From TrEMBL:
SUPFAM superfamilies: Xylose isomerase-like. GO terms for molecular function: isomerase activity. This is Sugar phosphate isomerase/epimerase family protein. It comes from Negadavirga shengliensis. PANTHER family: HYDROXYPYRUVATE ISOMERASE (PTHR12110), INOSOSE DEHYDRATASE (PTHR12110:SF41). Keywords: Isomerase. Residues 23-252 form the Xylose isomerase-like TIM barrel domain. It holds the Pfam family AP_endonuc_2.
Amino acid sequence: MNKIGFNVLAWSAAVSDDLKPVIDRLKKIGYDGVEFFVGSPDEAAYKNIGDYVRDINMETTTVFVLGPDENPIDPDPRVRKKSIEKIKWTIDRSHDLGARVICGPFHSAFSTFAKRAPIEDEYEWSAEVLREAGEYAQQAGILLTPEALNRFECYLCNTMGQLSHLIEKVGHPNVQAMFDTHHANIEEKKLGDALRKISPVLGHVHISENDRGTPGSGHVPWDETFATLAEIKFKGWLTIEGFTRNDPDFANSIGVWREFSQPWEMAENGYKFIREMGEKHGL
C-alpha cells in the first residue's frame, strides 16, 4: 500500500508547537506522514517540528505557493530571480522538516492572471526557474512536484497535458508532477486518462474531494482514480488535502468561505476510505 499523508492546513498554515497534538493523533489514526505549508518566517520552528515528527517515526512532505512579486513567469527577470530565491528558501525549510517531496503550484504565482491564455515564453521562463530549483533540490535529496490548478486559481497549468508539457521542458530528474483530484475533477475530461498522461513523471498525489471535504463524500470518480493509480503502478504518497476555516487568514486567501467537513472527521474517515480503495484496487 502507498504511504498515506494528511495536510495539516485543515488546522493551520503556521508550523508551530500547536501542531504537535494534531501530529500525534494523525499517527494514532495510522497516517505515515504529515504535509506542512511552508510560509511562516519562523525558521527555527521548521527544524523543531521536523525533529518531533522524525522522533515519532513519521515522515513529512510540504506544500507552498508563490505570490505576484515572485512570479516565475513574470516578463521581468528581476521578479523571476525572486521566485528562485523563494523556492530555494522553501527547499531549505523543507529540508529542516525532513521532507523529501515539495508540492504546490509554484510553476507560476497563485491567482495571478494575464487576462489571456498562456504563451510559450511563459512555459520557457517557468522551466528555466524550475530547472535551477531542481538542481538546488537535488543537493537536498528533495523532489519538486509542481501542481496543476483549476482555471480560477491559475492559467499556466490547468491540465495534465499542460503540466506534462512544462515538465518535459524542465528536463530535470528532481522536477516531476503532482496530481490533485479536486482540480482534475474540474479541468479533466476523464481522471483516468489524465493520470495515464502524466504517469511517466508523476511524483505526488493529493486525494481531495470535489468540495475539499472528506474524500469519498462527494462525486470525484474514486474507483476510476484508484484503479488507474494501480494500473500505472504509482508508488508515491496519497495525501489528503482538505480545507476548513480553522485558519481564517489562510482560508480567506484561497476562497474558503464555509466548512466542508470537520478536520477530524476528514482525517479519520478519509484514512479509512483510502485504505479501503487501495485494497479494492490493489494499490
